[in-house]
Specification:
- The chain contains five helices and no strands.
- With about 170 residues, it is an all-alpha fold.
- α2 runs parallel beside α5.
- It starts with a helix and ends with a helix.
Length: about 170
């Protein structure tokens, strides 16, 4: 049940990513049109807005990648076929993601507080808009990696029980 809930959450994030990509096209198009055609005046705030949107696209994309198992996972050795080595391979990756997620969540709070005291140059927007992404995303990475670690352990137990049953 928790897996289905997390999957729906990530599906919602994928939809949000699509919306943000569409929104990112607006200030970028305004920048290109103003620089190369002169049809509209150059607005400097569009660059800041594009940066804010891009930061969130990267952060939300990293959450989806953690859920899909395509982030922070580089295979140096071939995928293990036996249950215990496979658990060790996947477990190390999930523990690393979980550890980094905890660091981002804990230390990101101070970073977000720092950002809350600053304003952007052109839009005068509070930089908490982007700085708060670190503790939020770190917390989500921690939850997703923890769930994937529990899944890997359960898969090992099922496979280990299956192998033990075959040996008898």
């Amino acid at each position: 049940m928790i897996g289905r809930l997390l999957n729906r959450f990530c599906t919602g994030l994928r939809i949000l990513l699509g919306v943000l990509m569409g929104l990112l096209a607006i200030p970028v198009a305004m920048q290109v049109i103003s620089r190369y055609t002169g049809l509209i005046p150059t607005y400097l705030w569009t660059e800041e807005l594009a940066t804010f949107i891009f930061v969130w696209i990267v952060m939300i994309g990293s959450v989806v990648a953690v859920w899909d198992g395509t982030h922070f996972d580089v295979r140096v050795i071939p995928d293990a076929q036996r249950p215990l080595p496979r658990l060790l391979q996947n477990g190390v990756v999930h523990i690393a993601i979980l550890s980094f997620g905890l660091m981002f969540a804990i230390y990101g709070i101070e970073y977000a507080e720092f950002g809350s005291k600053q304003r952007s140059v052109m839009m005068r927007a509070n930089l908490l808009i982007t700085h708060v992404s670190l503790p939020i995303i770190g917390s989500i990475w921690t939850v997703l990696a923890g769930y994937r670690l529990i899944e890997a352990i359960a898969e090992y137990r099922r496979a280990d029980g299956h192998i033990a049953g075959d040996a008898q």
